[in-house]
TrEMBL record:
Pfam families: OprB (PF04966). One of its GO terms (biological process) is carbohydrate transport. Gene3D superfamilies: Carbohydrate-selective porin OprB. Signal peptide: none annotated. InterPro entries: Carb-sel_porin_OprB, OprB_sf. Belongs to the OprB family. It comes from the Bacteria. GO terms for molecular function: porin activity. This is Carbohydrate porin. GO terms for cellular component: membrane.
Length: 78
């Protein structure tokens, strides 16, 4: 079975979040997140997906305006 876009996939995601005032209190900033990832098909039954998320105005960290999160996911299936 092949992916419509080919064996590998490049993806981008965007997110906007407004923290709940009733749960986290008032005066929290809106949070914006962008993500880019690339899924490598290693073999017929395995995939490796590195990703980078860039977070502007982390809602629960008022000490910084920007942070990044790096991820690596491995998937094996039958």
């Amino acid at each position: 079975m092949h992916n419509i876009m080919g064996p590998n996939t490049l993806g981008v995601g965007l997110n906007w979040n407004r923290p709940s005032e009733s749960t986290f209190g008032q005066k929290l900033r809106d949070q914006y997140v962008s993500e880019i990832f690339y899924k490598f098909k290693l073999t017929h039954h395995t995939e490796l997906t590195p990703s980078v998320q860039l977070v502007a105005n982390p809602a629960l960290n008022m000490n910084t305006d920007f942070t990044s999160v790096f991820g690596l996911r491995f998937r094996a299936f039958l």
